Amino acid sequence: MSSVDAFEEFVNTLKVEGAKRYHTNHPFHKLMIEGKLTPGQIRAWVINRFYYQRILPMKDAAIISNCPFIEVRRVWIKRIINHDGENGGLEKWLRLGEAVGLTREDLFAGNVLPGVKLACDAYLEFCKNSSWLEGVASSLTTLVAPDAHRDRLEYMKRYYPWIKPEGFEYFQWRLIEGPEDSRMALNILRDYIKTDEDRERCLKALIFKTTVLWNILDALYMEYIVRGRKDYE
Amino acid sequence: MSSVDAFEEFVNTLKVEGAKRYHTNHPFHKLMIEGKLTPGQIRAWVINRFYYQRILPMKDAAIISNCPFIEVRRVWIKRIINHDGENGGLEKWLRLGEAVGLTREDLFAGNVLPGVKLACDAYLEFCKNSSWLEGVASSLTTLVAPDAHRDRLEYMKRYYPWIKPEGFEYFQWRLIEGPEDSRMALNILRDYIKTDEDRERCLKALIFKTTVLWNILDALYMEYIVRGRKDYE
Predict the structure, then answer these.
(1) How far apart are CA B122 and CA B115, in angstroms?
(2) Which residues of B touch A74 (CB under 8 A)?
(3) What does the DSSP 8-state code read for residue A141?
(4) Which residues in chain B are contacts of A73 at CB distance < 8 A?
(5) What pLDDT score does A136 carry?
(6) Can you tell me the mean pLDDT for A197-204?
(7) Which CATH superfamily is domain B3-226 in?
(8) For testing the chain A interface, which of B70, B123, B127 should be mutated: the one with the most A CBs within 10 Å?
(9) Which of A65, A90, A128 is opposite residue B70, by nearest beta carbon?
(10) In chain A, where the domains are located
(11) Structure letter (DSSP) for residue A35
(12) pLDDT single digits (tens) A115-143
């Protein structure tokens, strides 16, 4: 088997193992796309997930801080700018917040569930303490994310007509930017993965990342569905 | 005393304590600006100091990875680009390397003294493991650096005419960029230092950084002056 085939097979493994554990399978996501969440539950999701969004530029900087290769750093810095830039991911998520009736202050106040904070902080620590290559691999939930964004776009528009349309800009942007991000990360893995052990660690990094996303929804489900908290109704 | 005065006084303390320990006082630097280094000793300095240059964008990324404030990250990311960009600090230092008769491969091979590696790696670890505010403060050797760059420009041109003039572009650039970097860092400290303890830790961070730069020259002096190593003659 040629090394091109071997890499394609590895990418396929990442997709299969990622999709299997991706948070689109989570009961909270299912309730969301079935139109069964209350406005307060949607707001709780937006506010808690913003904590994750805020971690993203920091974890990308952690990856750069571990990377001795200028050609990788020059590419990866775009990820920080994509989130922190003037019309970047954080700004777009803040607009989603406003579209569901929250203020920017609500989102920045960081009043998030302890389980959400724990999961997101663990992701940042993972990127600080693992190799930069594992950090890059952990970003590859982008391989399976477009379906989730497409679902959110379609079903949130259909079932939650009270959400102002400008709120959906984030998901539209991710539909375009996500595949671009995947290509960037895969090009790097293709060049820098040398051994079976590298491949194994990269796969584990991606699986770890799916756990982060899954745990965020666990905390939300437990508090806002099972325990019925209503602070954003 | 107003808080403006207090901040000015703090900046003055940083300058005084920084200048006192700055590596322009080091015997290796003195030999350099007195024209007493051999071509091999100049080359050894260029190649070893390149390891420090390569650490800079990584330590700036480490500062961003620790910083939860988007407005600080948006400013500080320029530091990474200043070094890693197409015509950035690393590229300019590589040209200095060529101007003293080294190849780019020589510089990237990273064949540096263990003491230099230890000091530079310690700086990166410091920025990873300290608060982002201390990381920012540690950059403020830029407050006293312009004199060093001016000296290098003047005396290296005078005493080492064998160095090709395009090699001096790095120092010319730092003369302009350094004061800009200082302003950036001081504006951040002004906004985010809240307590005497913050001030104390920021001063200690700057003093730590002077030790990093000093240690680099210790290792060079011991190996290339005292022990008389001649691998780059």
Answers:
(1) 10
(2) 84-85
(3) G
(4) 57-58, 61, 80, 84
(5) 98
(6) 98
(7) Heme oxygenase-like (1.20.910.10)
(8) B70
(9) A90
(10) 3-226
(11) T
(12) 999 999 999 999 999 999 999 999 999 99
